[in-house]
Design a protein that fits this description.
It is elongated and about 70 Å long. It contains four helices and ten strands. It is of the alpha+beta class and 245 residues long.
Length: 245
């Protein structure tokens, strides 16, 4: 028993001496000594995972003044450029110049001069006038008959407050005026007619007789006006020339 105890004491002294010798060697070499902690398998796995993960690219921080970015995108120059490049109603006029963006109005008619085309003002009637004369060549003192037709080409709205006007030159004398609808007055070659309403597809006729008193070419023009505005003012007038010998 004493021998076993003695052996244990000797082994303990030897281990202490070995540790002391290693510590002295470390101090002499100038290297620090550290305790070696037991590694954690979980921590090691996490470290490996992190090392394999790609480094994320930081996203740009939002503008501290987002309303400034919105106003920049909605600047007048940007809006103008977009409108210049757009033609929503396909009428051949860019949205920037179009008086009615959503409805086709290639003529850009604005009867009330409010900056909005008649198509956007709810106007959907088109008065058209035609005129003919017989005979086209007459002798002085012979009668010439003018036939005038006014039609509402629509497409949807009744024309109202229609006004017709014509000026005959002094080389002719107006002898009669008859209208199928409405009332007409003539004084010294100045002819005026008024019609209350004309539905879509309907028409009215005027018959005017004159007698030339001078040998000369005689030009007569007649104009019609739609009281609620007209979709196409290009067909609101007609001209006829006769020759008096």
């Amino acid at each position: 028993m004493k021998c076993i105890i003695l052996a244990i004491v000797i082994i303990g002294l030897a281990v202490n001496a070995l540790i002391a010798n290693q510590s002295q060697t470390s101090r002499n070499s100038g290297l620090p000594t550290f305790a070696s902690p037991t590694p954690s398998p979980e921590a090691t796995i996490c470290d490996v995972k992190r090392s394999l993960e790609p480094i994320p690219t930081p996203s740009p921080s939002p503008s501290p003044f987002p309303e400034q970015q919105v106003m920049k995108e909605l600047s007048w120059d940007n809006i103008k450029a977009m409108l210049k490049a757009s033609d929503q109603d396909c009428d051949g006029v860019s949205d920037y110049d179009d008086t009615c963006i959503n409805l086709p109005n290639p003529n850009q008619t604005d009867s009330d001069f409010d900056g909005f085309g008649d198509a956007c003002d709810g106007i959907s009637s088109d008065l058209a006038v035609t005129m003919s004369a017989k005979p086209r060549r007459v002798g002085s003192g012979q009668t010439v008959t003018y036939s005038v037709k006014i039609i509402n080409k629509g497409p949807m709205q009744t024309a109202r407050g229609i006004y017709v006007q014509s000026f005959f030159p002094s080389v002719v004398k107006v002898t009669s005026v008859a209208a199928s609808v409405g009332e007409c007055d003539e004084f010294d070659g100045d002819l005026e007619c008024t019609i209350d309403a004309l539905s879509v597809g309907a028409s009215i006729t005027l018959t005017i007789t004159v007698v030339p008193n001078t040998a000369a070419p005689i030009v007569n023009r007649i104009n019609v006006r739609n009281g609620i505005g007209d979709l196409n003012q290009a067909n609101n007038s007609a001209t006829v020339t006769i020759v008096a010998k």
